[in-house]
Design a protein that fits this description.
seven-stranded mixed sheet; 7 helices; 12 strands; Rossmann fold
């Protein structure tokens, strides 16, 4: 069994603040070790279920958060940027299942460190007219490749968002949001035991057949800055919805790669720090 694991950081056990998840933050070094422990719990669950190939994609921020020496030896790590498929780098139709670790709710939704990809710079995203964040876009893109998402870990807001996209996905709430920067936490040992058990159970059960998204799909993004939207109109196939909103149509896997280009353009035009 081949398993792909996408590891974000905001939804990791114990982490609640930008200082926990941003390089240079006073608690970032601790945060990256907490991230590794959640990932390792998921890897242990996958191995217990019979996975023979587990690839972990570091999907947070600069994508250099996981220390290779801290990772479970059964996993192979994809680290660094830029990646054509970003948070889903390394995912192929040859994978049997996908696991999302440390994920968070979309921009504007209740949840710890909720945002969509770029903090303030992205106000809203819609996939085929439906509000979407990192969770829904990962689930739909994986489905387009024929790979089911079988488990997700994060706060209770992320778990609820995942169930809206596919109620069959096993979810583990490692914390319960009190506000965007506050949460009631599960004890780390309890959280990691729950992650390991949920992943093993999900992979031992018959794997669900994913429902592919429409082809073509439509991806729409509303930016904080009109400058970003105007600049993106120079890319073939990108059209304007209004002064701050752009749209493109095509196969979802192509749109996911295109969206990565949009974010690199936006990053070159803005310098706003996320989360604050």
């Amino acid at each position: 069994m081949r398993v792909h694991l996408s590891a974000d950081m905001e939804g990791v056990t114990g982490l609640v603040d930008a200082e926990d998840v941003q390089p240079g933050g006073r608690d970032y070094e601790r945060g990256r070790l907490m991230m590794a422990e959640d990932v390792n719990a998921a890897v242990r669950g996958a191995v217990a279920a019979g996975a023979t190939d587990v690839v972990v994609n570091d999907a947070h921020g600069p994508m250099r958060n996981l220390l290779p020496e801290a990772l479970h030896p059964a996993a192979r790590l994809i680290r660094g940027e830029a990646k054509q498929m970003g948070m889903l780098e390394g995912l192929t139709p040859g994978h049997d299942a996908m696991i999302l670790v440390g994920y968070h709710a979309r921009a504007g939704a209740p949840g710890v460190l909720s945002h969509s990809f770029m903090g303030h710079e992205i106000e809203d995203i819609w996939l085929d007219g439906r509000p979407v964040g990192e969770i829904g876009l990962a689930q739909a893109t994986a489905a387009a490749l024929g790979v089911p998402v079988v488990a997700l870990t994060g706060d209770d807001g992320a778990c609820a968002e995942m169930r809206e996209w596919d109620e069959r996905v096993a979810t583990v709430a490692v914390k319960h949001a009190h506000d965007r920067f506050a949460a009631a936490l599960l004890p780390p040992a309890e959280a990691r035991r729950a992650i390991e058990e949920a992943v093993a159970e999900a992979l031992c059960a018959p794997l669900p057949a994913p429902t592919p998204p429409p082809d073509p799909s439509t991806l729409t993004v509303r930016w904080q800055s009109a400058s970003v939207a105007v600049t993106l109109l120079g890319i073939p196939g990108v059209t304007s919805v209004d002064s701050r909103t752009v749209r493109a149509r095509g196969p979802l896997t192509d749109l996911y790669r295109l969206f990565g280009v949009w974010m690199r353009v936006a990053a070159s035009l803005t310098d706003q720090a996320p989360y604050c």
